[in-house]
Design goal:
Four copies of one chain form a homotetramer. Chain A is of the alpha+beta class and about 425 residues long. Helices cover about 35% and strands about 10% of the residues of chain A. In chain A, the strands form four sheets. A four-stranded mixed β-sheet of chain A has the order 10-9-8-11. The first copy, chain A, has a three-stranded antiparallel β-sheet with strand order 1-4-12, covered by helices on one side. In chain A, strand 5 and strand 6 form a beta hairpin. In chain A, helix 2 runs parallel beside helix 6. The longest helix of chain A is centred in the middle third of the chain and has 30 residues. The N terminus of chain A is likely disordered.
């Protein structure tokens, strides 16, 4: 994995990691026109320009404003536009109107970024530990938005009948041979009393902790994620037409939205819309853009089940979280065959996103960021091809509502051993 | 508890338990007019007549039709009306149109019930074990609908500005003294590797199994549920106006519906609409008709948390599940002070309703009944004042969406020990 | 028409007409069970019991309360329930919750009616002219609700898959022969400067006035309304699949609701659901339960157009408004072949419901009743089989939104001469 | 008015008028960024780029494709994107997704425009009369979109909390003195049998014809439109809180949307958001951005009424339709004091948008354009400050739903003489 080390190594100095993170966000927005950067295809997806601005607002507010004396806001009108959901930080633009912010322009937002970056680098050597922790949090926060920026751009471009490509496709992107679906190998995890959750060593979001004990019965995890070829079998076998395979609310969802394939697929043509435009399905590559409902139904169809968060985490703890197909630079973002428990696609688990035993939220506005639990969301583990390398961990808890599909979300099967 | 034994003792012969169960449903509908019995205040609540008919449809379909040769349907048009959600049993009336069934009349439905009851009692001695199991399932199923019938009637009457009373209020129903909120006592549960889930000894719904091990850290449960007096303090302290007390989706719900008190409350007048009409709040009685969101916010405000399903179940396993304030006859259905882990109100837990480790659904149409998991619902444990005595168990898993309030749902706090 | 004279003759003494009107409403509700009378199939349809009560509220409020000294309200809680839309009369139950009023019972409402009727008859001889005018208005108002009661019951029963019958069908109700569609005869109306609108001689709603001049070019009206046989041709010719036949919003409506035939029709089986249950289509009878959109599209398909209000009124002024197939008693309410410009079905016109030139609303709360214009509604002229005989006039202005179909609404074609 | 003559004179050669019209659209889009031009604030408003493209599609399809042999579509994917509602021209992008077309870019659309313009100018000398009529229609069509482009940009910018300005404000834009509201003068129109509608002399949309007779009673029209000062009095007098002033559906609209002032107003601050950003209200200038509901309520409050279409048209026929404050170039678009029956604001009439007596739609796809009547829309007469000078006529029929406010819509009062 050392080819990735120079880029986002956790050991690199904070200033360098900050600079690299900020630069990567800009690079991700590079292929976008002014109009592309303003697209908001649905209420939960934000325009790329908003991501650029919101991450900057985070640093300006919680680091510069709160910890650098004499700092004056670059533009006092920006917080209303670019605050996301921090109740403590006052009123803000309705989420579904972010696509209306044609001004400030992309250039103006870039200028603001430059201004804030400069001030941050100047301030960094003098910052107290509490502020340095916020810089670290800001980096992690920005990495999350890097992934969202990519998936939101994908959703925005998918809404255009011209199906524009965000990036070039690559010669090596062939369809692959279709693997026999019975080639599945399984790996066993530890069972009995195990421990999961962040141990406080190194950065983690506070929902990842505390480290705690749990009980696992013997189990196995599939050695590879479910592939596009596997999914085509599920489709061909009538998976989307068999109510008994689905959760009750999943089946409602299938019927209400007339779902017949993963998001962005044309199952008939065996193509998918991707960041490189419409492409033939890569049979060996992990299926992506499926909902929890689909993941769960597929598992039932396959005679297996989804892993619990603890099952996934215990095995993932033995792997290099910075390995696999993750985001290093603004290009070639797509799942490909092979790889371990990190990279390619986030894997839906059978676990609801609830606080870990013993969890207590941090006080204060930034604490809102971490303590914002919701009912009705499911945990995803691992990392995807759009996750900035170095961002994820075994204890990392990604979460989305069960019907969400616009992330790089896939499936890894589990079984009782 | 032996005064309850004659009524619903699990040891009583099946024929007797069947007869008593069927009779109780009729008795519950007794105070209702033809129009009362047709009320459907919202899509998830069913008219009382529908409950009377649907439970009959269950026995007619799965016992008489499937296991009594020569049985002919009483009326071939009824299944379309009174099937609920069994996909395998064909098309059915849209759920939100159940209030449109002014015909068949209540008398006709009662006649149908009589016919089916007669045929069931005649058939009972000859039925094979599989069919007897379905009779047992039908009894349990009807008990669930008895509770729903009461809560749906309450919701229907609440929609009438005249606020009619379903039953008389009782002299003993005084307001009680307001207990100091710091009088709370705590009980400790077992920790370490524990076992929960149904062990297959006696009836259980299959979602209750299998019995399995889990890990618990030391914890305590409040010795009594949260009372109306406690809740008035929460209201007075601005609980409904403090975003940081709430889950993110809970806060959205509060604002969207302008929630300021439990369902049916007038907080200003300290009254609540009940099955006995509008009544002064009983300060000592457990608060009822709160959502998971409210339960969770209250717990945070109180410096405590909701128990997990396992925590509640481990302690409940040591109590008589047929004890406490549960439903014995069609009268005086309301929470009152005192009582253990069963009766009064169902308690929201911090656990999502997901299948237990090792769960596999039963095959066939009736299996649908049990295997119908949904994402986004939370588990409630215990039993309420509207739960037919004998119906619940430590392993029982009631579940509702986090915003549901029309059941007798309350709160019992938990803490790390 | 003299067989109708005894029933609702405008010349009969007011006391007698009041008594007969009140009695007819009761008779119309006679076939309904307590639950039938509580059905509210959609927000714009009211339960029959509500009609019984609301018309009583009208007399109690505007006659007894306002003009009989010492009268005390029968029940002070009733106005909140049974006021309809009189802003001046205070708060009221939300329109779509009228189906929740299972109490007061039908018997209680009948008792209230009896009480009010008794007091009205006692008061009548002493009432001042202004109050007598309100009694007259109350009679006319109740007649409108008689028609609505029937069409709302029809809509309520149609929502029940059992399709109950409100009344018996009759031996004479045969299907008739299919008339050739080219048998159409036309009648010519006066043109040039004509006069329409109520002239203040006899009762009229104030939206019918003032009488005013208008200009008509030469035109003809079809001698008979469009029949079911005609409509079957329209269906067979793809009328519901041809966008160019439809108004722009009409075509949106067709697609959004997947409309393929008049309301209550099964076009394949050539049957319609009626107050006598499902019946074969009577080919010669006028088509009923079509929207303005359908009426307009049919006219375009037929190479004709809808008449304007003025065109219809000028010809209708020459006919006996109390003639034709209108409501005399609670039985046999259905369109049948033959008949003139009154009776069978209300005919959609090409005219929007706007105030006549020179119109000024009456002051005061009852004035609200008449001055309640709305944009976006179309005028219907004539009278239907459910209109109490004697209620309509040439100047009568019925009006509904263009998509409404639950009234007895049909089509009479017009052409430039 | 001769300073306007060079710009859009109807007498100018077609080629010149085409070129000027096409150039004006480009000029109107000039101040917009790539992102501004992609804004779609609500489903009925289209992005400016879409207007640029759609008007080009019209010429390419109906002139070049249909009448210039050998013409090949510039890009075969564009019709799906830029067709609006022509059923005959095939499938098209959902109306509310026009904001998703970030590609093609503004530059690409401009290139397409250039290409089509060039080909049109080359083809013009050889085109047959039918095609020349389509060029004329295309010019008129593009003028309609010029006005929409401006009002849609205004709506888009209003959705941005930064309230950007599309154009500069001008020194002369002072607030004016508040005119006494009793200064109103009235002008009398002809009455008796009058004629309205297009007579076929010069261009008109076919809904404007045929010319036909109608009857008018004596009436007067206000000599000036209702001003902002007048409207402030209406607000101060509780106009928005008085149900009896409003149509029934108008009052529903007021309450549902909590309407308290014209769109874009801050009544407290006496400012309005305009194309020049937020500006103080000009007291003497006509009120703009009011709905039909507001116009109607204001008229009732003022003891007057809205004019009918015929009343307005008869008087307007005596004025120069190319006069007044209309659009000449891409600047200073705002209502100002003074002016006649054309310019400043479109005036709501009391007339529904229905076809004129004797109307028959033109056959064929382009005919769709004119024959697209809808129920539920009201006619507006005159012209606004955003109407390209030369576009309107006395017989012109603008129309919008009664709640629409984003156009420059105002009020001119009428009275019976």
């Amino acid at each position: 994995m050392n080819q990735h080390a120079p880029i986002l190594a956790a050991q690199a100095p904070l200033a360098e990691r900050l600079a690299r993170t900020r630069a990567l966000t800009l690079a991700l927005a590079e292929p976008l026109s002014e109009a592309d950067a303003c697209l908001q295809p649905f209420a939960d997806a934000s325009p790329a320009k908003w991501h650029l601005a919101h991450t900057t607002w985070f640093f300006e507010t919680f680091v510069l404003r709160d910890h650098v004396s004499g700092y004056r806001a670059y533009d006092e009108r920006f917080p209303f536009l670019f605050n996301s959901y921090y109740e403590g930080e006052g009123a803000r633009l309705a989420r579904d109107r972010r696509g209306m912010i044609s001004r400030p322009s992309l250039a103006e937002v870039r200028e603001w970024r430059g201004h804030v970056d400069e001030r941050l680098q100047i301030a960094l050597p003098q910052l107290p530990p509490a502020a340095l922790a916020l810089v670290e949090l800001g980096i992690q926060h920005e990495q999350q938005h890097q992934e969202l920026l990519l998936t939101d751009v994908l959703a925005g471009f998918a809404a255009n009948p011209l199906e524009p490509a965000y990036m070039a496709s690559h010669a090596g992107d062939r369809m692959g041979s279709s693997p026999a679906s019975d080639d599945q190998k399984w790996i066993e995890g530890r069972h009995g009393v195990i421990e999961i959750g962040a141990d406080g060593d190194g950065f983690s979001f506070d929902c990842e902790g505390p480290r705690h004990r749990a009980w696992l019965e013997p189990y196995r995890l599939a050695a590879r994620p479910v592939s596009n070829a596997d999914w085509l079998e599920f489709v061909a076998d009538g998976g989307y037409r068999s109510p008994t395979l689905w959760l009750s609310d999943g089946w409602d969802w299938v019927r209400r939205h007339d779902v017949t394939a993963p998001l962005y697929w044309s199952a008939e043509e065996q193509t998918a819309f991707t960041l490189a435009g419409r492409q033939p399905l890569h049979f060996d590559a992990p299926v992506a853009h499926v909902s929890y409902y689909e993941a769960d139904a597929f598992a039932r169809w396959a005679g297996a089940r989804l892993p619990t968060e603890a099952e996934y985490e215990v095995l993932a703890a033995g792997e290099d979280a910075a390995g696999g197909n993750q985001l290093d630079r603004a290009e070639a973002v797509r799942p490909h065959a092979g790889g371990g428990l990190f990279g390619n696609v986030w894997c839906w688990t059978a676990s609801a996103f609830l606080s870990h035993p013993g969890f207590t939220p941090v006080e204060g506005t930034v604490g809102e960021y971490n303590g914002k639990f919701m009912s009705g969301q499911m945990v995803l583990k691992g990392a995807s091809c759009a996750t900035p390398r170095g961002h994820s961990r075994a204890s990392y808890r990604n979460f989305f509502p069960p019907a969400a599909r616009w992330q790089f979300t896939g499936v890894r099967l589990a079984r009782d051993a």
